[in-house]
Amino acid sequence: MDYEGFADRVERIVDNVERAISGKRESVFLAVAALLARGHVLIEDVPGVGKTLLAKSLARSIQAKFSRIQFTPDLLPSDVTGLNIYNQDTRAFEFWAGPLFANVVLADEINRASPKTQSALLEAMQEGSVTVDGETRIISQPFGVLATQNPIEHEGTYPLPHAELDRFMIKMEIGYPDGDAEKEMLKLARDPVADLEAVVSLDEFLQMQQLVDEVHASEAVLRYVVSVTSATRKHGDSYLGASPRASRMLLEASKARAATEGRSYCIPDDVKALAPSVLSHRIIPSAGARRAGGTENGYAGYSSVTRAIVEDILGSVPVTEAV
């Protein structure tokens, strides 16, 4: 597979997903790019805009195994990872895999689970493995978590700790469709995903991930990535900036974008295009910035403030600036 073939396959995946969730091409592209870069996505939006449809249709389009975890306050870590159960016939413990053992995992309303259960995702998201009773089990690739949370209802929820937010490559919103897209949605079947067929095989998608790994990033691009990330730690409206992990994820997402455009090399425009989605949720704004933005009461609403910080940085950091 060459990069032209790569770009053609991405186009087919996005077009196919848009058959189920029309009018949201940018959101679909971000989810596909994150999965190609071996990353995870946090979707924060109101109910009914297609968060679940996006995850299911993406899995169907790449012939991937899909699982859904409905997060609730009484959910246990073993309900997510799996557990060892004693088999009386064989007189031995057998591992029953949890829903994490899939290619595309929808973590629905992730902030409704307790911090202990949320933390069960961390190893899987970072290492691609799960440890149960001291034994580490590898999750088959490709593997991506698409988590959702509702920004409106906060009663009975547990805010995601910053360490967990930092594991998500991209945070995004889907938003309401425009009038024409909503009208087209009304013409679809009750379950539009059921009519979708795979447009690439799982093996092809694995090859596409490998091709993303091979995209070249020059020293100048690496310096620019680090300059942008470092600037989030020094910005006057930032209390806590993005971590070195963010630099790595920004580079990987930028390489995925380059490949989707049929290029074997990364350019600064790739970094600029992905930086708001990769960096915004990793920044904690200062108290003054929160007050000015009307978001002094917690994480809800941080997005507009932190996105403005990233946009300001992209407008002020020269592309040629060295670290």
What does this structure look like?
With 323 residues, the protein is α/β, with parallel strands linked by helices. The chain has two domains: 214 residues, Rossmann fold (3-Layer(aba) Sandwich), CATH 3.40.50.300; 108 residues, Magnesium chelatase subunit I, C-Terminal domain (Helicase, Ruva Protein, domain 3). 46% of the residues lie in helices and 15% in strands. It contains 14 helices and eleven strands. The strands form four sheets. The chain has a five-stranded parallel beta sheet with strand order 2-5-8-1-9. A two-stranded antiparallel sheet has the order 3-4. A two-stranded antiparallel sheet has the order 6-7. Helix 1 packs across helix 2, helix 10 packs across helix 11 and helix 12 runs antiparallel to helix 14. The longest helix has 17 residues. The chain is globular, with a radius of gyration of 20 Å. The chain starts with a helix and ends in a 7-residue tail after the last helix. The model has no long low-confidence stretch (mean pLDDT 89).
User: How many separate domains make up the residues?
Assistant: 2
Kindly state the mean pLDDT as a whole number?
A: 89
- Rg, please? 20 Å
CATH superfamily of the largest domain: P-loop containing nucleotide triphosphate hydrolases
What gap, in angstroms, lies between the N and C termini? Answer: 35 Å
Q: Biggest β-sheet: count, sense, barrel?
A: 5 strands, parallel
Which oligomeric form is depicted?
single chain
The helix tally amounts to 14
- Please identify, by name, the CATH architecture of the largest domain: 3-Layer(aba) Sandwich
